[in-house]
Specification:
The structure holds 2 protein chains of 2 kinds. By secondary structure, chain A is mostly helical. Chain A has helices at residues 4-27, 30-47, 54-71, 73-82, 85-101, 103-110, 114-125, 130-137, 141-159. The chains are: A mainly alpha, B mainly beta.
Chain lengths: 178, 482
């Protein structure tokens, strides 16, 4: 069995729900989040031969999700415009469980511009540095800092949280996330 | 003391993860990865031109040479369409910009073979190490995506050679110490062997101060081309119109996060997204009129599900609708159906619907003409329990119909029938989501499937004897679709 395969299977088995939740915070669309995660998983394990740990593989997938999210927004917009009210209603129903799990966060994230969302997600949920985030999203480091600062400030205000220092977000490379 | 933002976000993500379903099948993912890896290994010996985007080039019409493109008058706010003009710079082979070529002229000849059709004849192209000007070719993940040095388009030749395809081709160059950046050209081609560079987008962007760019979308009509051009430096996009007859260009909109264009037969439809607004507008052929009214009306949308089957709304009026054939597509109540995507104009993503009871997916596509809907049984998800569409399904417009890749092989959906495609080499070459992964091309000898992931390309030939030469030459829109 190839070395990548057990890693891929374990990642799908143990982390797909977290990855879908992460993608949902970006897309605000449960179906799109599922598609994004599936595609990112395939891309990740096609492009890389080996990951040292599940954690590093997950980080790579999260980066691929955020990047694909921004790349794919054009098509998402088109599709959204063309969906009927009925289809939208059905889709919204499928989102209910995710939204209800943390309605405040879902609502707060929806207030951010897409790039702010992507930057905040990579910096605060994927533990990426400014440089890594800039590379993943094809943005300058200055732009990442700006989007992260603006997005984080808005989120903190909406959620009643305190903003972490954008340049010193805790990175725990050994411990997994819950 | 209030909670930190990172802790708050992680708590929320964990709660959502608890509430999330687990629809993705590990079997499906692993299978897709295996196929791609196997194909990549086989593709190492055969690389084709990297095609990054393309749409149909419709029938060529003429515009008086003295007619110029006027400024655009927007009718509503952000993002503000602009009217800045600049001269386009057609491809120039005198070396004013570095031009990448395959490692030898013979290889270039094999790429563009007038006897068999431009861009469709694919031969093995070794990574180009040749230096053109002061820029060396860089590799695209082990392989080079070479830019062929085609002649600039002669407007007179448009009438004579009737290009049917417009595509954006990209090569990667690297200056000393610089990372790779794209060199993009818009190429016109016809099945009878015509091929020419219409616009050297990279040169135009350099003149316009845009820096390195890529092209997300492109459409052509008459002597005009409209493209969604993305700036590498700040990742914003603009919508640019070139007029090949006058050499002028107009920036219709800029500063967008993403943008796309299409020609709907009478006007350009341009879409864009900015940080705080979206743009959807219809622009007249000559860019003199601009409106946002009615642009968001969705042709071909699924508007309802009935016991007789899904009801679709077609372009035209609100009473132009159709119930899909219940003998072919099972009538599934709405609460048992999960639809992804949308049926719209040719070249757009097709609709995939899943019958939750049987687990099977059905694909729909709108065929050019009278709104005829083709459909195909895409099959079930496979061994896993997932609820996503089969990962190996893709649609592509071809010959007045659609090519569809699905678990059983390839079908060519044309009016009133579904024709299986004899594709002996097709098994490992399935589309993924029908989006950026695959490009479908046609040649006089058959149908090719080009995988552009991750920047590898390869064409496999299929026997398409069902498609007559006459139909091929005159009856199809040579779409190459993502």
């Amino acid at each position: 069995m190839s070395r990548w395969q057990p890693m891929a299977e374990e990642l799908v088995r143990t982390r797909q729900r977290a990855l879908i939740a992460y993608a949902y915070l970006l897309t605000r669309d449960a179906a799109a989040a599922e598609d994004l995660v599936q595609d990112a998983l395939v891309r990740t394990f096609t492009g890389r031969a080996h990951f040292e740990s599940i954690h590093s593989a997950e980080g790579y997938v999260r980066r691929a999700i955020a990047s694909a999210f921004l790349d794919g927004r054009r098509r998402v917009v088109r599709r959204t415009r063309r969906e009927s009210a009925v289809a939208l209603m059905e889709a919204q129903q499928s989102h209910a469980a995710l939204v209800e799990a943390d309605a405040d966060l879902a609502l707060a994230m929806s207030q951010l511009a897409p790039r702010e969302r992507a930057c905040v997600a990579l910096r605060y949920l994927a533990d990426m540095s400014v440089a890594q985030t800039a590379e993943a999203l094809d943005l300058s480091q200055g732009a990442v800092k700006r989007y992260t600062h603006d997005g984080a400030a808005a989120l903190a205000r909406l959620l009643g949280a305190t903003v972490d220092d954008a340049d010193t977000v805790a990175i725990d490379v050994k411990g997994g996330r819950s | 003391m209030s909670e930190s933002l990172s802790a708050r976000m992680r708590r929320g993500e964990a709660a959502m993860a608890e509430a999330s379903p687990a629809p993705i099948s590990a079997t499906t993912v692993v299978g897709a990865v295996r196929r791609r890896r196997a194909w990549r290994a086989s593709a190492a010996s055969g690389v084709a031109v990297a095609v990054v985007a393309a749409v149909a080039w419709s029938a060529v019409t003429w515009m008086p040479e003295e007619q110029t493109v006027p400024a655009v008058t927007p009718t509503r706010g952000t993002p503000t369409p602009t009217s800045e003009s600049a001269s386009s710079t057609p491809a120039d082979s005198d070396g004013t910009l570095p031009v990448l070529v395959p490692a030898s002229q013979e290889e270039a000849d094999r790429l563009i073979d007038p006897s068999t059709g431009p861009t469709f004849e694919v031969g093995a192209v070794r990574p180009a190490s040749q230096v053109a000007g002061d820029v060396a070719a860089s590799s695209c993940v082990d392989e080079l995506c070479g830019r062929v040095d085609l002649p600039a388009v002669d407007v007179d030749s448009l009438d004579r050679d009737s290009p049917t395809t417009i595509m954006a081709t990209t090569a990667w160059a690297t200056g000393e110490g610089d990372p790779g950046y794209p060199l993009v050209s818009l190429v016109l081609a016809s099945p009878v062997g015509f091929a020419a560079t219409a616009v050297d987008v990279s040169a135009w962007a350099q003149d316009a101060g845009w820096g390195p760019v890529s092209v997300d979308d492109v459409a052509g009509e008459g002597t005009r081309i409209v493209a969604a051009v993305r700036r590498v430096d700040d990742n914003t996009s603009g919508i640019v119109m070139w007029d090949l007859a006058t050499g002028d260009s107009v920036v219709l909109a800029s500063g967008l996060e993403s943008a796309s264009v299409e020609w709907d037969g009478s006007a350009w439809l341009v879409y864009g997204v900015a940080v705080d607004d979206t743009l959807g507008a219809s622009v007249s052929a000559d860019a003199t009129e601009w409106t946002t009214e009615g642009v968001e009306v969705a042709p071909g949308s699924v508007v309802s599900h009935t016991q007789e089957g899904p009801v679709l709304l077609f372009p035209g009026s609100a009473d132009s609708w159709r119930i899909l054939d219940g003998d072919v597509y099972p009538a599934v109540p709405a609460d048992q159906t999960d639809c992804r995507g949308g049926v719209s104009s040719p070249g757009q993503p097709a609709l995939r619907c899943r019958d939750s009871e049987s687990g099977r997916w059905w694909g729909f596509a709108l065929v050019p003409g009278d709104g005829w809907v083709a459909l195909v049984d895409l099959g079930a998800q496979g061994e896993g329990e997932g609820t996503l569409p089969p990962i190996d399904s893709a649609f592509a417009p071809l010959g007045g119909g659609y090519l569809v890749a699905h678990e059983g092989g390839f079908d060519w959906l044309v009016r009133d029938e579904v024709r299986p495609v004899d594709a002996p080499q097709a098994q490992p070459m399935r589309g993924v989501s029908g989006t950026r992964e695959w490009v479908w091309v046609v040649s006089p000898d058959g149908v090719g499937v080009v995988d552009n992931f991750p920047l590898y390309s390869r064409v496999i030939a299929h026997d398409m004897t069902q498609l007559s030469v006459e139909q091929y030459r005159f009856g199809f829109n040579a779409d190459i679709a993502w």
